[in-house]
Amino acid sequence: MDAKSDILDYLNAHFPSLDNALKVYLSEIGTLQQVPAGTVLMQQGQYIKYTVLVLEGRIKLYREGEDIGEFFMYYLEPGDACAISMVCVASGKASEVMAKAVEDAVVLMIPVHYMEALMKDHKSWYQFVIESYRRRFEEVLGVLDSTVFKNMDERLLSYIRSQATKLGTQELKLTHQEIATDLNSSREVVSRLLKKMEQRGFVKLNRNSIEVLPV
User: Fold this and answer.
1) Would you say the C-alpha torsion 134, 135, 139, 145 has a positive or negative sign?
2) Based on C-alpha coordinates, what's the Rg of the chain?
3) Which residues neighbour 75 within 8 Å (Cβ) at sequence distance 6 or greater?
4) Among candidates 79, 140, 76, 138, which has minimal Cα distance to 102?
5) Can you give the pLDDT at residue 1?
6) Contacts of 94 (CB under 8 A, 6+ apart)
7) What is the mean pLDDT of each run of 10 residues along the chain (215 residues)?
8) What is the DSSP string of the chain?
9) Is the model's pTM score more than 0.85?
10) Is 77 within 8 Å of 136 (Cβ atoms)?
C-alpha cells in the first residue's frame, strides 16, 4: 500500500466530516510522518510551516513559563487538528505554545501555503476548522475554570475522569509525576490525593496504572 492510500485510510477512519474530494486532495499535498513519543512538534516562538492532523497517538499542548513551569492546555488525539497552528498561520505570528507527542504518533503535515485555498475552496474544511477552534476554546476554558474555581482534589478527580473518557478506558497508565505536571502541582501532592481518592472508592491504585471506578 502506498502513502496516498495510507493517508486516505486514516482520513476515512478519523475525519468523516471531510468530503471525499478534500480527502483525496489532502492525500496529495500532505506528508505522512511517524512521530516517536517525546518528540516536540511545535515550540514557543517558532513560526509554523505545517498544520498537523493527528492520525494515531496523542499530542500534548502546553505553555512553558520560567516561574510556573508547564501549564497544560489539552491533548490532540486521532481525528483532531492543531487549531493553534491554524491561528498562527492565519495571523502570521509565531507559536505561543508547545506541542509534544506523549506516545508514538502518526500525523499528516499540511504545508501552510495551502491553508488559504483550503479555507476558500472547501466548505467541509472551513467547517472543520471552525469546529476545531470551538472545541479547543472550550477545553482551554475548562482548564482555566478548573484552575481558578476548583480546589486541587476536585481538579484531580475531574482530570482523571476526563482522561478515562477521552481514552475510552478505565485503566490509565499515567505516572503521578505526569499528572502533577499537567495540573501544575507536585508528585507528592498528587500521590497523597490519589490515596485519599482510593479510600473514598473513586479509584484503585495499581502498580503501573490508575483504575477509575464507576460513580
Assistant:
1) positive
2) 19
3) 58, 59, 60, 61, 102, 166
4) 76
5) 44
6) 44, 45, 46, 47, 48, 88
7) 86 96 96 95 89 94 76 90 80 85 95 91 94 88 75 90 89 92 89 93 92 89
8) --HHHHHHHHHHHH-TTS-HHHHHHHHHH-EEEEE-TT-EEE-TTPPP-EEEEEEES-EEEEEEETTTEEEEEEEE-TT-B-HHHHHHHHHTPPP-SEEEESS-EEEEEEEGGGHHHHHHH-HHHHHHHHHHHHHHHHHHHHHHHHHHHS-HHHHHHHHHHHHHHHHT-SEE---HHHHHHHTTS-HHHHHHHHHHHHHTTSEEE-SS-EEEPP-
9) no
10) no
Q: Tell me how far apart the terminal alpha carbons of the chain are, to the nearest angstrom.
A: 45
Q: Are 85 and 54 in contact (CB under 8 A)?
A: no
User: Cα–Cα distance between 110 and 132 in angstroms, integer?
Assistant: 16
Model pLDDT, residue 215: 74
Residue 165 half-sphere exposure toward CB, CA atoms < 13 A: 8
Angle (nearest 5°) at CA 180 between 94 and 139: 50
State phi, psi for 214 to the nearest 5 degrees.
-60, 145
Cβ-based neighbours of 41, under 8 Å, separated by 6 or more: 35, 52, 59, 99, 100, 101, 107
CA atoms within 13 A on the CB side of 152: 16
Residue 68: its pLDDT value, please? 61
Residue with cell 501552510: 112
> Which grid coordinates are listed for 15?
475525519
